[in-house]
Design brief:
The protein contains one helix and five strands; from the N terminus they run E-E-E-E-H-E. It has 107 residues and is mostly beta strands. A five-stranded antiparallel β-sheet has the order 1-2-5-3-4. The protein starts with a strand and ends with a strand.
């Protein structure tokens, strides 16, 4: 889906990462496809969760249209780096010109 811009920063030892997922344009694809996060250690396990500044609430709300597409979002999810890099994960859909940050510490 070319409506997304995804950028990440991964520590040298691949023990943690932060990715930005930005919706650039509207897309007819619903729910969104799984997004791969390249560069993670395939043999490590990561906990994926939203990264928010202190005092800021998440812009993501539970979807009534696609309730299971990103049900993991509110508590985070723990997955192998190989799954996140190859199969990917579905993230909440956003309106254009909106972004979310996710943090991935190795567990």
């Amino acid at each position: 889906d070319e409506g997304w811009s995804i950028h990440g920063v991964i520590s040298d030892d691949r023990s943690e990462a932060v990715f930005s997922l930005m919706r650039m344009a509207t897309s007819p694809v619903r729910p969104i496809h799984a997004v791969q996060l390249p560069g993670l250690d395939p043999d490590a396990t990561y906990h994926v969760s939203e990264l928010l500044p202190a005092g800021i609430e998440s812009p993501v709300t539970r979807s009534t249209q696609f309730p299971h597409s990103w049900a993991w979002w509110f508590d985070g999810v723990t997955l192998p780096g190989s799954v996140l890099s190859v199969a990917g994960l579905r993230y909440p859909d956003l309106n254009p010109e909106r972004a979310i940050l996710i943090e991935l510490p190795r567990v």
